[in-house]
Amino acid sequence: MFGYVMPRMEDLTQEERERYHAAYCGVCRALGERFGQRCRVALTYDMTFLALLLGSLYEPEERQGSKRCAPHPVRPHAYLGSECVDYAADMTVALVYHKCLDDWRDDRSGWARTYAFLLEKAYREVGARHPKACAAIEEGLADIGRLEETAAAAVSSGNTTAAPPPDAAANRFGALLGEVFAWRDDFWAAGLRSLGAKLGKLVYVMDAALDREDDRASGSYNPLVALDAQPQDVREDLELLAADAAAAFEKLPLERDVRVLRSVLYAGVWQKYYAKEAKEAKKAKKAGQPGQAKEPTHVQEEHQEAYRG
After folding, report:
1. What are the residue boundaries of the structural domains of the chain, listed by start?
2. What does the alpha-carbon distance between residue 170 and residue 82 come to, in Å, rounded to a whole number?
3. Which residues contact 101 (CB under 8 A, 6 or more apart)?
4. 140-177 as b/e, with b when 16 or more CB fall inside 10 Å?
5. Which range is most confident: 104-108, 110-114, 290-294?
6. CA dist., res. 198 & res. 220, Å (int)
7. Rounded to an integer, what distance in angstroms lies between the CA atom of residue 208 and that of residue 167?
8. What Pfam families has UniProt attached to this entry (predicted)?
9. Angle made by CA atoms 218, 137, 153, in degrees to the nearest 5
10. CA 112 → CA 105, 106, 108, 116, 215, distances in Å?
């Protein structure tokens, strides 16, 4: 469920793009400095959003610089560092470590097992620094696994009344991400937890929407396949979830990097979904079937307002 929480770069000015890349490089640099170079492979766009979000809210002192690195040895790259960037690096390790364990359990992926082993020492360090967040990740993913397993068994047996509610796993992933977003137990924790919960639920359902046909073909459990949800209904549900996440975001008193962050929530989270929808529409057109791809209503109606001025 990685790779959704990123900005739509064409929305941003050159200065904003450079700022985002500096934060991305900062998280990468923090991974290398805190855990060793091989941990840089764990880098994701998603936690760059968290670094900028927390930095905008708490406004910590920032370290800025420009250096060459192993991934980019030819020319120096700007980077920024702060307590928030360091926390985002820690949460990157925690989430990727458990994703690798999950991939190993589900698919017997040798690569995932190997990389989880390589991350184990780093994860123990993160767990010592952030026991509450790591416990929330461990417990949350275990609960999601049980929910999905119970639901799959109920669907397979035809006893759908025994299945948990179809949004139970999405809600649980939202609760997990809410705890990750709540960096400190302070005045802002409730607002950050709410945003993380709503964004997490959106990402879970978005991932299910994009995997729906593959899961249908493979027989893997997918709540949207189990519900036999129609594409238009799925799109409308996603628009509502995205609107909820945006509403939680707008309640936070953010100024620095706010346009970059809005680009993520109002447009960036839709990029994979929209790309797949456009691909399917093109395929339908070639087959002589009706098909149409357009930006979601949520983006059409709110995008200009988000970037006004």
Report:
1. 9-264
2. 31
3. 112, 116
4. bbebbeebbebbbebbeeeeeeebbebbbbbbbbbbbb
5. 110-114
6. 25
7. 11
8. DUF5685 (PF18937)
9. 35
10. 9, 10, 8, 6, 20
How many residues comprise the chain? Answer: 309
d(CA 86, CA 97): 17
**Distance in angstroms (rounded) separating the CA atoms of residues 132 and 129:** 9
Structure tokens at 80: 């920024």
d(CA 246, CA 199): 9
- pLDDT value of residue 304: 44
Q: What is the pLDDT of residues 203-239, one digit of tens each?
A: 999 999 999 999 898 888 899 998 888 989 999 999 9
Supply 303's token pair.
Answer: 């995008």
E strands present in the chain: 63-67, 77-81
**pTM for this predicted structure:** 0.91
Write the DSSP string, 105-149.
HHH--HHHHHHHHHHHHHHHHHHHH-HHHHHHHHHHHHHHHHHHH
Which amino acid is present at 157?
A: S
In the block, residue with structure tokens 């790309």: 275
For residue 82, pLDDT over 60 is answered with yes
CATH 1.10.600 given to domain 9-264: yes
